[in-house]
């Protein structure tokens, strides 16, 4: 029998929630006590050293030099928000252990206290971004089902891949995943503009958030299509995305407008390293899997690999589109027009058994409920 109903019966929901978070933090800390990839292995020392190096790089150098500095030794190749987070932790490290972020002199720095600082920085990101975002998402999905909410949190927070990559190997994927989760939580609660801002933050922290971009983009555009003021809502979403990118990219122009274009172009070149080939060693994607059996890089020129990727990506997206077209959801939103029906008809169309009201469906919540039902279909096999 699950322990969650028992805790709920004794009004110990807060204690149960704290138990989940403490258990998740404990497992993360135990994993972080182990070594990491590249430890004591010169000359590059692994991703742990890369993240530490970015802290000292962003702290000591002007913004215009971040994406140009010593590219052969862990040159910065993530979007600006990653650089800002690195700067923040580098600033804190200057007070805690200055040797950790001593530019050039600290390469391969692996003291016990330095490792603790780095490990704690990942835990801080979990506590500030990832865990709160999961709590909000769980509340949105399981509004009055506290036991299911706790089970959901346990499943996600103890997911081995999250823990091993961030707290074992050493990364800050929890920030990007946290912003993506916040975006989904907001969108499910009909705060699409806020969700767009959070997803823009995810994209600007790690370019791998682009994996989720097609689903989120098409979902938001589809919701716009089912609104009477399509162009206004679409313009709001566009303004939110463009404004978010502008705010996050603006510091790159701190050295002046004359250098702004060059800095942004270099940042994009580092973030999307097409010139270095479609993929690099140890990157887990389909191209690396194919490379095990058929050496793409030895048989196909890098520019041709880019063309191949450009053809494959829209093809796979179209396959998903065809799948969802087969489902053919019923046009339930037509029932939500205030001039033609009542809320009773809307409830009936949206699958509700209540027929007690005959008031016109003028409320946004009524239309939103119908819209959520509209998008709840599954793809047929």
Automatic annotation (TrEMBL):
Its main location: endoplasmic reticulum. GO terms for molecular function: dolichyl pyrophosphate Man9GlcNAc2 alpha-1,3-glucosyltransferase activity. It comes from the Eukaryota. It is a multi-pass membrane protein. One of its GO terms (cellular component) is endoplasmic reticulum membrane. InterPro entries: Glyco_trans_ALG6/ALG8 (IPR004856). It is an enzyme of class 2 (transferase). The chain crosses the membrane at residues 12-31, 116-138, 150-170, 197-222, 234-252. Its EC number is 2.4.1.-. It is found in: Endoplasmic reticulum membrane. This is Alpha-1,3-glucosyltransferase. It comes from Aphanomyces invadans.
């Amino acid at each position: 029998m699950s322990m969650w109903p028992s805790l709920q019966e004794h009004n110990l929901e807060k204690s149960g929630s704290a138990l989940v978070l403490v258990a998740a933090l404990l497992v993360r800390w135990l994993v972080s006590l182990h070594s990491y990839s590249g430890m004591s292995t010169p000359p590059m020392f692994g991703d742990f050293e890369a993240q530490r190096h970015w802290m000292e790089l962003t702290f000591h150098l002007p913004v215009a030099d971040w994406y140009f500095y010593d590219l052969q030794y862990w040159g910065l190749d993530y979007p600006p928000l990653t650089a800002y987070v690195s700067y923040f932790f580098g600033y804190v490290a200057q007070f805690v252990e200055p040797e950790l972020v001593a530019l050039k002199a600290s390469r391969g720095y692996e003291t016990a206290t330095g490792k603790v600082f780095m490990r704690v920085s990942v835990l801080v990101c979990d506590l500030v971004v990832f865990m709160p975002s999961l709590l909000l998402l769980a509340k949105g999905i399981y509004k009055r089902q506290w036991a299911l909410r706790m089970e959901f949190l346990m499943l996600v927070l103890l997911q081995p891949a999250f823990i091993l990559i961030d707290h074992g190997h050493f990364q800050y994927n929890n920030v990007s995943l946290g912003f993506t989760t916040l975006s989904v939580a907001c969108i499910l609660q009909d705060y699409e503009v806020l969700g767009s801002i959070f997803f823009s933050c995810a994209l600007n922290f790690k370019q791998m958030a682009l994996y989720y971009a097609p689903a989120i983009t098409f979902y938001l555009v589809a919701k716009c299509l089912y609104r009477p003021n399509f162009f206004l809502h679409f313009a709001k979403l566009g303004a939110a995305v463009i404004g978010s990118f502008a705010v996050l990219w603006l510091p790159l122009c701190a050295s002046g407008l004359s250098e702004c274009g060059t800095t942004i172009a270099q940042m994009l070149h580092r973030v999307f390293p097409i010139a270095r080939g479609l993929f690099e060693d140890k990157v887990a994607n389909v191209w690396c899997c194919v490379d095990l059996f058929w050496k793409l890089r030895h048989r196909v020129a890098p520019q041709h690999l880019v063309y191949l990727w450009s053809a494959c990506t829209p093809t796979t997206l179209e396959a998903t589109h065809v799948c969802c077209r087969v489902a053919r959801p019923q046009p339930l939103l037509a029932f939500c027009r205030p001039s033609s029906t009542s809320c009773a008809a809307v409830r009936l169309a949206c699958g509700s058994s209540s027929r007690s009201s005959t008031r016109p469906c003028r409320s946004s919540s009524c239309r939103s409920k119908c819209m959520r039902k509209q998008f709840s279909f599954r793809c047929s096999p």
